[in-house]
Write a structure and sequence with these properties.
The structure is a homodimer of 409-residue chains.
Chain A (H helix, E strand, L loop, with lengths): L11 H17 L3 E5 L12 E2 L9 E2 L3 E4 L9 E9 L13 E5 L11 E4 L3 E7 L2 E9 L9 E2 L10 E3 L7 H9 L4 E5 L3 E7 L3 E2 L9 E2 L2 H11 L3 E8 L3 H14 L2 E5 L9 H6 L5 E4 L2 E2 L3 E7 L2 E6 L3 H20 L7 E5 L3 E2 L5 E8 L4 E4 L8 H5 L3 E5 L5 E2 L4 E6 L1
Helix pairs in contact in A: 1-6, 3-6
């Protein structure tokens, strides 16, 4: 068994920088797509959206009540003839005869000549009925000033003004504003298409493992991590340790994806299929000074970046979280996950020379405890964690009460 | 125009309690459904999931290297005959001949009789080749203790132990653990099915508004709010102010939904279609001492709760946020949105007797400023907000620097 020529351990920061640089073409100039408003919740706008209309579209009433000339109700109470009725959705412009009132509903266009709305609460029909306004007379009980309860056209937003800024993650209130302005589709950042390949003759999915086999946990974990990071899974497949089989699914993945993630097959063993297949493509196979997740490889094949993570389930998930979550979230326009400070509630030991990412559980009170052992096969243990505890490279022991950086999972 | 007999204003807390009580049958005993793991990301488990298997499934190697008896490598360096090879996924149990070593890959079953793994880094083949182990001899350079680099069966989780607790929002790490244990489907809380009906002859969708008409912003806003709160939209429709038309879509919604939300048509005007249709069903039509969102109605029709919100776009969104977001999130098993404290960066005036929910924008530094005016038609203004500023009922003025409660939108 020969040693890798490039056997110096790379730091996490160095490898993260390499990964980020490989993704630069995808993150610096993200692709865009146009989606109907109904499918735009949570998507991130690729450009600002300016309104093509004034909002409100027309001068309208803020209240159910009566449209009047303020001059006619200066000395309330005063009785005015009701010269008509303007329901919301009324189809043609109406004029107010001076000295009269027009009944008006909230949102209905304010008639020409009217300059104030008297809310129905401040009125009483002294002649006529709600359902028959012919010959009706309304008593206006309170004087109103010009403009009261009138929503001027464009008072919310003028045509040409920005409805939604570029880079906005679309929430319900943004969709409401876009819909109100008649916008039907919006240009958003396209989701990066990620191919996910797990390798290992020992992996089974959908059947009961024979002796020596295990269920594939990495395919679903990576798929879910990719989705959480705002990308989409273009393809997901598993192969044995047979290079021809792996090459086949890799080829499919390269054709359908913006980037490809693999798990397994890159350490120093004898059946390292991913390493073997990536090698002729000039793969950068390295060991990062971290635990779990040390063995890492990257390649660019036909312009498509490939990230090869080690196959232990915890290593795979930690590798994604440390190296890909940030760039993928950035590409999707999602905010970065910020590190937090916490206090160790238990003493931990670490391996000097490796930055260790322990699985930890916050206690809701600023404290964090390891959620399981450090070993990278503890997939059930990792399910108990909610953070990674970031133990610096040159640490052997951290005592209870020590301050640590934690990363939300 | 007659006054409503129950015209006393209800407080926000009182109305919220009524809404919560109406939803109790749905929130206290939430329906469940079984979903495949691939569709379970973000869903909330309805029951704990216990493992039917030990994890790991079998005793296996933590490293690529050689399986040995610790007793045989007590005084390293020592040369051992390589008596065979165990790749990962190897299909039948193997025994170790005492005094020899078996090459083993990470994850492969540890042979009977072996009790330690020597990592490949600590070995050298002194006879034979990696690709031809016949007659090979390996030099073990470091002694190993019993159990080193051996992952015992069940050392992660034992059969019958809890994999995922009830009420867990399924993240990638949970899906990985479930998959590793061979779980294929998981029982989660069913999403509440919500029917959304917007009313108003003035509303148009998908065509250009004629004079006096406006685009419907409430349908999409409510649909998005419902989805964000962990429920699903069973039906979305819009009707004119014609009672027969509204009754028709209401009937459809009642048949396909766990609850129904309507917007518009419940104030004191002359064409209040929702109010008119709900009235014979014993609707509770009320005015809540809040702004926006004062006019509110509720009904239970054929066992289905109906919540009627006022139709101004800001009123609709604020009503949902104040009254339905909490109960729907609780029903979905999502954490409550917690109020935060912020400092006003501008003076605000309010209407005594009404709790006001101003649209506000956080400045990232603990400060909050109103994002638009208080009027409930400012749908574009609301898109600029990220919080509601909660101005207490009996407040007329709050000066710059005052502490306020804000609710994240």
């Amino acid at each position: 068994m020969t040693r890798d020529p490039a056997d110096e351990r790379r730091t996490v920061e160095e490898h993260a920088a390499i990964v980020a640089r490989m993704l630069e073409p995808l993150t610096e100039q993200p692709a865009t797509e146009s989606v109907p408003l109904d499918h735009a919740l949570g998507r991130v706008t690729a450009a600002e959206v300016r309104s093509e209309v004034d909002l409100p579209l027309f001068r309208n009433s803020q209240m159910d009540g009566y449209a009047v000339r303020a001059a006619d109700v200066r000395s309330a109470p005063v009785a005015l003839e009701v010269s008509g009725d303007i329901p919301a959705g009324h189809a043609s412009p109406v004029s107010l005869i001076p000295g009269t009132a027009l009944r008006i509903m909230t949102g209905a266009p304010v008639p020409t000549g009217a300059d104030a709305i008297v809310p129905v609460e401040d009125t009483e029909l002294v002649l006529g009925r709600d359902d028959d306004l012919s010959g009706a007379v309304v008593e206006i009980r309170r004087p109103r000033k010009r403009g009261e309860y009138v929503r001027e056209r464009g008072s919310d937003l003028r045509r040409g003004e920005v409805l939604v800024e570029a880079g906005t993650r679309l929430a319900p209130r943004h969709l409401a504003a876009l819909a109100a302005a008649g916008v039907e589709t919006v240009t958003v950042r396209a989701r990066l298409r990620v191919g996910i390949l797990t390798s290992g003759t020992e992996l089974v999915t959908g059947s009961t493992p024979a002796f020596g086999q295990v269920y594939d946990a990495n395919g679903i974990a990576l798929a879910a991590l990719v989705e959480e990071a705002g990308a989409t899974v273009s393809m997901r497949a598993s192969s044995s340790d047979d290079p021809a089989a792996f090459e086949r699914i890799l080829d499919d993945a390269l054709h359908s994806s913006d980037l490809v993630i693999t798990s397994g097959g890159i350490s120093r063993g004898a059946y390292e299929v991913v390493r073997e297949v990536l090698h002729p493509h000039g793969a950068d196979v390295t060991t990062v000074a971290m635990q779990p997740g040390g063995p890492q490889a990257t390649a660019v094949i036909g312009g498509v970046p490939v990230f090869a993570f080690p196959g232990n389930p915890v290593s795979t998930q930690v590798s994604f979280t440390v190296f890909l979550r940030g760039p993928l979230r950035a590409a999707a326009g999602l905010p970065a996950v910020q590190p937090m400070e916490a206090t160790l509630t238990h003493r931990v030991v670490s391996v000097p020379g490796r930055r260790q990412f322990l699985r930890g559980r916050l206690d809701g009170d600023g404290g964090v405890a390891p959620a399981s052992g450090p070993s990278s096969h503890l997939v059930a243990g990792m399910a108990q964690a909610d953070v990674l505890i970031d133990i610096p490279t040159d640490t052997e022991v951290l005592d209870e009460g020590a301050a640590v950086t934690v990363w939300t999972l």
